[in-house]
Amino acid sequence: MKLKELREQVCEANLELDRRKIVVHTWGNVSGIDREKGYIVIKPSGVSYDKLTPDKLVVVNLADGKVIEGDLNPSTDTKTHLVLYRAFPTIGGVTHTHSAYAVAWAQARKEIPCFGTTHADYCHGAVPLTQPLTAEEVAADYEGNTGEAIVRRLGNENPLAKPMVLVAGHGPFTWGKNAPDSVLNAVFLEEIARIATTTVMLAPNAGPVEEYVSEYHYQRKHGPGAWYGQKKG
Amino acid sequence: MKLKELREQVCEANLELDRRKIVVHTWGNVSGIDREKGYIVIKPSGVSYDKLTPDKLVVVNLADGKVIEGDLNPSTDTKTHLVLYRAFPTIGGVTHTHSAYAVAWAQARKEIPCFGTTHADYCHGAVPLTQPLTAEEVAADYEGNTGEAIVRRLGNENPLAKPMVLVAGHGPFTWGKNAPDSVLNAVFLEEIARIATTTVMLAPNAGPVEEYVSEYHYQRKHGPGAWYGQKKG
Amino acid sequence: MKLKELREQVCEANLELDRRKIVVHTWGNVSGIDREKGYIVIKPSGVSYDKLTPDKLVVVNLADGKVIEGDLNPSTDTKTHLVLYRAFPTIGGVTHTHSAYAVAWAQARKEIPCFGTTHADYCHGAVPLTQPLTAEEVAADYEGNTGEAIVRRLGNENPLAKPMVLVAGHGPFTWGKNAPDSVLNAVFLEEIARIATTTVMLAPNAGPVEEYVSEYHYQRKHGPGAWYGQKKG
Amino acid sequence: MKLKELREQVCEANLELDRRKIVVHTWGNVSGIDREKGYIVIKPSGVSYDKLTPDKLVVVNLADGKVIEGDLNPSTDTKTHLVLYRAFPTIGGVTHTHSAYAVAWAQARKEIPCFGTTHADYCHGAVPLTQPLTAEEVAADYEGNTGEAIVRRLGNENPLAKPMVLVAGHGPFTWGKNAPDSVLNAVFLEEIARIATTTVMLAPNAGPVEEYVSEYHYQRKHGPGAWYGQKKG
């Protein structure tokens, strides 16, 4: 993909965040990567969605975080994105939002159990929650260490099977095979979090759905022989 | 009704799901049946609503589930639809969604009691909840057995008087005399579930409305001498 | 006001219900009265808002409920409206909805305490709740007796100071000096009910706002020397 | 800034309240100040947003509250705005709304703890709650004393670091460096209050985010060397 196309795709993905109404004001950022050339394209910091155009996006070097192209400052969360791209070589896009229900679970410091098939269709198992950062980690490199906390929490799990996380006291990060896919996962996480909130209000002791059901749903969509959609199994 | 018209009606019903904002992304599917010719028309799997046109719908044989017409794969939930059409000869349309409040009750594994007249106007008695499937049922034929669990739960009740069900850990299925009617029942179920959620939050011990009131409301709209609307009693 | 204008005003008021998004489908009806000529104009039964035009409204005699003009059946709630117009001579419009939060309080069978100034601005004291109807009242004249239950509950209170009520297990009725005013009160009641729901979730033992504050707010807007808005005090 | 421009900016800020859907009907008002000339421009009382134009705004003298220009009555909350402008010399705009979640916290009479970074980005520490007014304060000068209660509650805090307050039993006031900024703070407060509501429902004993995290976020956006956005640090 040429840089021009990547700029357009990432710009469109940022605007989609706004259209899906899961961000307020400038609260969110999306990036996409070109693995061959070793750079990412990311939203500039604090620019509102109605003024965002592909040429305003910032190109940042994957290896050292230096700005390669662009007059504006990149998102203050850029370092977090970079850590994720370096740790998860299969992902192509990252999204950060402050969507209300996902943030509430992050503030409540609770993982979201897999209560049903809606969840199972998009995330394998519970939506994980990071450990809080220490004062030292915040002082030394807050954004970078936020990424490290996510990577530690994911551990050996396949990031494309668990494409979402809650940063304790902060909010969600999601990723995917490219920028638009990471935005869809942000939308799905918010809906999953919203439904889970109502679930625990109706049944405080609700448990996860039977594992053979969630496993079936996940495999139907994402397993090696997935038969959901129009892909050839 | 000609196939062309049925395609248009079912396509329009699928789009109505999206317009009523009770589905996110591609999460939902609607079908309609031609009882004389013995086939159903259903949404293709994983196609987003903004790309759905009547010619993309898939025609499936009622008797054996084979695709009669259409290049795309039918919804992965097709087998569930077929089981319902076979068991309930009076219904003409089926809708499945992941609408948030209905899913939350399904995840909380609770029936929705008939708390008031809004509910009574559209569903005779509580909105029922299926038994969970066993691991064997999931392994053998998940979608077909989901339909069977619904049929078992409905038992001897009139499916047009109780046109909605919650599948435990999964979400709602609704039906009606045709596809648009099944969509309306999905919309009504979501609103009923939303109001019921607030009701139990305000009064955890709330009980159903007096049966003579719910019966009166139901008969006013759906009984043999119904006088609601513009039909002649 | 001429009949043509009253038809237009009441039609517009019904459409406003839909635009304010406090009704789903056909769930609501608004009427207006011409006291001099002794008739009311009301929504026809079960007609959806996108097909409603002034000429489709039904004119009904105040004294005996007979249809004076119109080919369609009037709302099934017409008798309730008539009882209210007869008992409250100062009101000029009546609205009935199934708006979600107001219905939830009606289903929870709880009055809405005056928790704050938002409430006090539009309703003097708690939003009252009717007693449930008996089986005999339902069998004899459900809609008329619903009106009687409201009138009994209001007692000696000024209906323009308390322009809203919750019918137990059913939902809200509101009224005002004319049809548009009754719709505004339905909108305000829904917002009051929504805020009150969150209030009791945050503070289950929340009490009403100090009476000298609610009284001040109510008088500022509706008292004899009201100075809110652009009316001359 | 010329009066004409201030009128346009304040009018636009009032309309933004409506567009952001945090006000119902006429429930809200925004003002802006010209410190040099010593007057404020404020919304007229009880005028709906679809009829609001810059020339309908009212110009009021900061020193004595007299109307300098305008045929309409200024907002009944004008005195509260004036007290805030006099006490907080660094602010340039004030907004009052009855947005649902902020009002619910005000009615529940609870401060909103700083549960996470979404909050920390816009308000330094908890969103404060005023003491209730006494009957004497209400009788003597309700609107003026509402302002005084806010000022007392803010105490020595920097009003631009804590640009929001909940008036007990009433609702929120927010401010900022100008009118549009005060509206943004009203939007942010509503979102903060909404997320905080879900947080306490999920975790009734949730505590504030670690102070070194909230402090970091606040300084990143608003501290002396802020590096968020496109301003030069």
UniProtKB/TrEMBL annotation, chains A, B, C, D:
Molecular functions (GO terms): aldehyde-lyase activity; L-ribulose-phosphate 4-epimerase activity; metal ion binding
InterPro entries found in the cross-reference section: Aldolase_class_II_sugar_metab, Aldolase_II/adducin_N, Aldolase_II/adducin_N_sf
Catalytic activity: L-ribulose 5-phosphate = D-xylulose 5-phosphate
GO biological process, one term: pentose catabolic process
Superkingdom assignment: Bacteria
Entry EC no(s): 5.1.3.4
Entry GO terms, CC: cytosol
Transmembrane segments: none
Cofactor(s) needed for function: Zn(2+)
UniProt keyword annotations, A-Z: Carbohydrate metabolism, Isomerase, Metal-binding, Zinc
Residue stretches making up the Class II aldolase/adducin N-terminal domain: 8-197
A Pfam entry, by short name: Aldolase_II
SMART domains linked to this entry: Aldolase_II
Family named by the database record: Belongs to the aldolase class II family. AraD/FucA subfamily.
Stored NCBIfam families: PRK08193.1 (NF006047)
Protein name: L-ribulose-5-phosphate 4-epimerase
